[in-house]
Amino acid sequence: MRVRASAKKQSAFFLLFLLFLCSSPTDASLLPAADREGAERFFSVAYDNFLNRAYDPALENLDNALKLNTYFVDYYLMRGLVLHRLGRTDEAVKSIRYYLEVRPRDSAAPRILERYRNEQLFVNEFLTGEPLQSTIISSEKDVKKAFSLGVLQTLGVRGLGKVASYADGVFLADTFGNRVGFRLPGEDLFQFLEIQSPVVALPAGNKSFYVLSETGDVFHLPEGERIPVSLGKLPVEPSDGALITSGLLAVSSAVSRGVFVYSLPELNFAGKIEFPEGERLFEPVALSVYGGWLAVADRSNGKVHIQSIQDRSVRFSLEAEAPRDLAWSSFGDLFILHEPGGVSRARISFTRRTATELENVLSETPQGWSLYPLHDRIYCLDISASRLWEMFPVPHGESFAMLSLFSPAISREQDRESFVLDGTVSGPFRTYMSMNAPVVTSVWNERLLGGNYIPSVAALHGATLYFKPPQPARSRGEGAFSAASGKEVVNALMEAWNARKGDIANIVVAASTPFSFEEILQLAVFCLQNRVRIFVYADGIPSLELLRAAALTCGSETFVPNGTWGPLPPYSSGNIRIVLPADETSSGFPSRSTLSVYLDIGVVPTRDWVPLWPDLL
Q1: Are 567 and 459 within 8 A, CB to CB?
Q2: Domain 402-459+571-616 CATH (choose: 2.20.200, 1.10.10, 2.60.40, 3.40.50)
Q3: Which residues, including other chains, have CB under 8 Å from residue 366's CB and lie 6 or more apart?
Q4: Which of the 8 DSSP states describes residue 123?
Q5: What is the pLDDT of residues 345-387, one digit of tens each?
Q6: Which of 190, 278, 333, 517 has the fewest CB atoms within 10 Å, i.e. is most exposed?
Q7: Which CATH class is domain 36-133?
Q8: Which pTM value belongs to this model?
Q9: Class of the CATH-defined domain 134-395
């Protein structure tokens, strides 16, 4: 037994000797010496870049810091925060994982990691075509207030046709009154235009619109003009119409029992939406377009058909009692107004190509005649335009909005100090969030602190950038960029963001620009993180993913390359104030000095994390 034990000791000693030879001092001397002071200087500049939303310089300075000190573990946490703001969530998650491998006991990083994963899952599912989990709140509203009418002014509608909207603009056709009433986007004045038997007025995305009449006559009122221009006459009698792209018009005709497509402005016949035997339309009284999807209400057959415009073989139908009108919400829910009264909502799964649920959301709508969307709301107007009902979604289950904090400062007042940060909030459910006061909770130095959120009084204006396919023959104007692909759009946006120091409020992207899903995902998350709205110029049929990215950021589809938009979403930006305890001191980066801010708006939770050193503010 002693011999065996001695042999084991000799073997162990021999292995240790081999390891010593293999790890000689000459190998260690090949590693670069750490320049801690130089690394900290670059890191400090990167930190300042991040706080001021200069993301590309932040990444460059972080990389320089790591080159000077390869043991700079805090690099990975800060890099993850920056990458998330850029919409590069997969890379951000990897970076924070590296950080946690070295600092597994950090208290903030696991929460950051979990939040990023959940955000990405939420955005992924919505972009691919799954419905938002929501319930609908409905109520009757005051018509005068909704249409910005004076005390003595009335709409005086004799017999309503269809109603349409864009931004905060509303356009209604008074078919029996032989006029079109409209409030242009960004304006308060409600105006009237005389046109014989109008069926529908279709806004183009700025302060211009088209009008279809019962006789088939088509008119266009250009922006800034007061007299409509006649474009010609259709060979069918329209019952409804909708713009598919800037150059294509879909028209339903109950008389001709079909849905037809015409070019704009020429009005050349471009095709007919064909339905198979047994599903032929009998009385198509209404239609509504959502990107590449067309919904048609066949009243007498008691059906709503949903048809892919790009692939005519892809369609599905819903049973609906006497559908009178249709409207897509910005999130892809289809609202159906029934002839006997009442409104139902079909929650559509575009990935499974079916309605996952059909529910009644408004029971009493006496003489309800037309539906129209406005931001994330759907309205129902009666035939005389004297009664108005509003419907809007509220979260059901887990939902998300994006909070981004920047430009922190220390406010020193009598007997107290406070953190003061600017913040932006982006995401769906804008109507619901505007009705709820935000509640702020914060954690810093492992202490639970309170906080207040004060919405900005003045709208936070910024530049509007236009990203269009290359057009060599045309000169680009101010804010216009040539982009042949989604990758070029993203790269040009990042360059413009740095050059303009984050002074960007809207971007317009051409529907004809090819995007990969990953590029749309990055664009959507970047815009959500930085409160930039996406608008899709429909020079072609926009992809579902791009259209839904616009909806998430409170943007929309537009049929002109440079549209006009109403006011920015409520609670889109504000100021957060966090009062510090009198005995509080900084503990050093990162774990305890990472400020965690939880801003809950009703049942919508928002989260953000910012490393804070009071001595550097």
Answers
A1: yes
A2: 2.60.40
A3: 341, 382, 387
A4: H
A5: 999 999 999 988 899 999 989 999 999 999 899 999 999 999 9
A6: 278
A7: mainly alpha
A8: 0.90
A9: mainly beta
